[in-house]
Amino acid sequence: MLKRLSKIALVFILSLCLGMNSVAKAANDDSEEAINEKFGLPIVVYGETLTAEQKEEVKKLLNVKDSSMVEEITVTAKDLVRLIDGDPRSRMFSSAKITRKEKGEGLVITQVTPGNITEVTDEMYANALLTAGIEDANVEVASPVKVTGHSALVGIYKAYEVGGEELDKDRMEVANEELGLATKLAEREGMDDEKVSELLTEIKKAIAEQNPATKEDVEKIVEEQLKTLKIELSPEDRQLLIDLFEKMRSLNIDFDKVKKQLNDITKDIRDKMKEVVGDEGFWQSVGDFFKKIFQAIGDFFKGLFD
């Protein structure tokens, strides 16, 4: 009898814990981050090609529950031309939510729909935004359909423009060129996305440390990093890389100012690479562990009524 009562008490405690966990989760889901009055409302940028139905889907994806708590704008093909000399015939689906942060807090990029952003990774976005001069913000990117993800950059630039911050057009164009080259290297050279981002990040860190004065200095840095990371590129792509960073040098982009963010990108890349090459045996053991737990729970409840 005592054994049976103990089992019933244990079931009650388990149920109580599960109930409390559900209440806590609901409370967390309903809570909203306080608005930073220094920077104003978060800005949500919608691609102009979205249908009304798709726009509502993006709102849900970006957790826009109350439109009065964000500033909503639309990015158009005209903006693409105006900001980065893009193609006026472009279709704009990628959307983003930008919450500006205090200086030194760094960039946090989150792809809410990673399955629909087919070419650009978080680290590629972060690298390009640092090049453009955007250093401290939470940026969430979403698309209801499969897209490469390039146009989201323009939406982010427009959000800063609407927020009263002027970004340098030359830097924005170079950042867009950087993003384009990053995705081309991943496609043409068969490199992992993480490896491409690591290469770009390490070159920027070397530029910050060595402060190259000439194009030859830039070329030397690029060659050193290709050798260090054991990356082989075609002569054409190697030259494109050198030309890109020579443009950055001529614009006097001070990567020393964003060294912390570059180091954060490097850490994120290496963490992801560890996950990709993780021990399959470990994950098998995790699966077996949970299988045993569920089996034990099943046996426990079965025993209550035996």
UniProtKB/TrEMBL annotation:
Coiled coil: 248-275
Keyword tags: Coiled coil, Signal
A Pfam family that the UniProt record links to this protein: DUF1002
Signal peptide: 1-26
Protein name: DUF1002 domain-containing protein
Origin species: Bacillus aquiflavi
